[in-house]
Specification:
98 residues, Arc Repressor Mutant, subunit A, two-stranded antiparallel ribbon, 5 helices, 49% helix
C-alpha cells in the first residue's frame, strides 16, 4: 500500500522510465535513452533506476519479458493508462453493476 501511495507522485525519472518501457528495454538502455531523450537534462543513476524498476515490477506496472537480456516492459495498456493517465480506455471498461 505504501508503494502505491508513493507512485501517485510521478517524478521526472519515473515518467521517463515508464515512457521508455512502452517497448522492451534493459536497465543500461533505459539510462542511455533517458539521457538522449532529454538531451542530458535528466540523468538517472543506477541506484534510482533499479529501485524504481523493482517498485514498478512489484506493483505490476512492468514485467520481465526476457530473462536472457533482462529486458522489461510496461504491462497491459490499461494498467499503463490507469497509472500514467488516470483513465481507462473505453475498450477496457466493463460494466460491473455499479
Amino acid at each position: 500500500m505504501v508503494a502505491r501511495k508513493q507512485l501517485k507522485n510521478l517524478t521526472e525519472p519515473m515518467y521517463y522510465i515508464l515512457l521508455i518501457l512502452t517497448t522492451p528495454n534493459h536497465g543500461y538502455g533505459i539510462m542511455q535513452r533517458v539521457e538522449e531523450m532529454t538531451e542530458g537534462h535528466v540523468i538517472i543513476g543506477a541506484g534510482t533506476l533499479y529501485t524504481l524498476l523493482s517498485r514498478f515490477e512489484n506493483e505490476g506496472i512492468i514485467k520481465v519479458v526476457s530473462q536472457e537480456d533482462r529486458k522489461k516492459k510496461l504491462c497491459d495498456h490499461g494498467k499503463r493508462q490507469r497509472f500514467v493517465g488516470g483513465r481507462v480506455p473505453a475498450t477496457e471498461q466493463t460494466d460491473t453493476g455499479r
